[in-house]
């Protein structure tokens, strides 16, 4: 999906949100500003697509974004002076689990945290995005927050974004790096540069040490993925062509002897 440019309207609301933080506005005031932001920056119809205090099975959420009447994103709002913490989505994730929603946005107007939820034996969540309008470059912030635009949600942009995040995760990349074929290629370059042939196990550990401690913990134990061995089947000896026995010769039919006339 083509990226949506929200840089100009987001820059305007960056000033509004930072002023709200300086003025120490409360959560209700921030909800009002976010409704306008979802209209002016992200393209939602505030009357039909942004619900405030939405009732979901006897539970309430601060904001609920809908497209064509279908809920797409739960928004949990905090006051602008309240630092965001992952645990603050616990109430929103309960709403999400009751309705099988996989996305929750936690924001105080300045910070924006987007979470992806999975439901199995329990509820698990991972932070998919973090933007701080007080710190981040506005161009970078606009590029990241553009996935919240109405057109993005309408075309499953969040799911596409998450699929890319999973593909680029440390667990996914490490599987590629620690594949035997990749390590053998690295081994060749190291030998060319240093003249020393290294074991691929040593190379794998050296590569892993280049990562941060957090990334190493995500990767876990180093496991080299071996290429499947191809067993060549020996060609069976060629069999001589079968020789068919010659067909028996057919003798010419013999004519019966003619009667000999009597001698005079």
Short account of what is shown:
With 264 residues, the protein is an alpha+beta fold. 39% of the residues lie in helices and 18% in strands.
CATH class of the largest domain: Alpha Beta
- Cα end-to-end separation: 122 Å
CATH architecture of the largest domain: Alpha-Beta Complex
SS content category:
alpha+beta
If you compute it from the alpha carbons, what radius of gyration comes out, rounded to the nearest whole angstrom?
37 Å
**Can you tell me the overall shape?**
elongated
Q: According to CATH, what is the topology of the largest domain?
A: tt1808, chain A
Which sequence of strands runs across the widest sheet?
A: 1-2-3-4-5-6
**Helix-strand sequence:** HHEEEHEEEHHHHHHH
Total separate domains: 2
Helix content: 25-40%
Q: Unreliable segments (pLDDT under 50, ≥5 consecutive)? A: none
**Biggest sheet features:** 6 strands, mixed
What do the pLDDT scores average to? 83
- Counted by DSSP, the helix tally is 10
Strand content: 15-25%
Count the E strands. 6
Topology:
Layout: H1 7-22, H2 27-40, E1 50-56, E2 59-67, E3 70-77, H3 90-99, E4 103-107, E5 111-119, E6 123-132, H4 138-145, H5 150-154, H6 157-167, H7 170-177, H8 180-194, H9 200-209, H10 213-219
Parallel strand pairs: 3-4
Antiparallel strand pairs: 1-2, 2-3, 4-5, 5-6
Helix pairs in contact: 1-2, 1-4
Task: Explain this structure.
This protein is an alpha+beta fold and 264 residues long. The chain folds into two domains: 161 residues, tt1808, chain A, CATH 3.90.1570; 48 residues, no CATH class. 39% of the residues lie in helices and 18% in strands. The chain has a six-stranded mixed beta sheet with strand order 1-2-3-4-5-6, sandwiched between helices. Helix 1 runs antiparallel to helix 2 and helix 1 packs across helix 4. It is elongated and about 70 Å long.
